[in-house]
Amino acid sequence: MADLLGSILSSMEKPPTVGDQESRRKAREQAARMKKIQEEEKKKKAEFRKRMEKEVSSFIQDSTVQKKKYNPMSKIERSILHDVAEVAGLTSFSFGEDEESRYVMIFKKEFAPSDEELEAYRKGEEWDPQKAEERRRLREQAALDAQSANQTETQTASPSSNYRDKYSHLIGTSAAKDAAHTLEANQAYGCVPVANKRTHAPSRRR
To answer: Any idea which architecture 31-112 has in CATH?
Structure first.
């Protein structure tokens, strides 16, 4: 145990070898390179953000455009553009199936896209408002036709008037005949309806 401790102490007291000095030098160079890369990335991000802020400002001031589509860009660039758009009060979305093809679209708030428009972009399709309006009208007409067909089926299944209403003239005549027969039978057997009975006080002979 003492020998092991002595060997460790003696190795620590020795001056660094040429190999150790070379490793330290390479580590310092690598750290310097990393710092330089980070500074360059930071500078590029700042420049990109400044350029996006200028483009977004021009987009806002141009009353002839409602939306703007950008070319595919990296995830970091998309993040910066989304942030710039949000600060400017715009709506922004990313589209594209894979990372290499993803791009950003920005919209003015008053022209924010509908769910149908967003779905078209997600599918990689161009948005055509006229075609969309035609599809909407066709869907509404189909819904109206289906509703009309359902109402027709319901009316066919259940009669428009009930049995008693439909045959009221026959039922009424039959009821009158039954009442007449009942009256004749009562008269034949000397029965008098209650309504026709009168209460007479017994007569007294004076």
So the answer is: 2-Layer Sandwich (3.30)
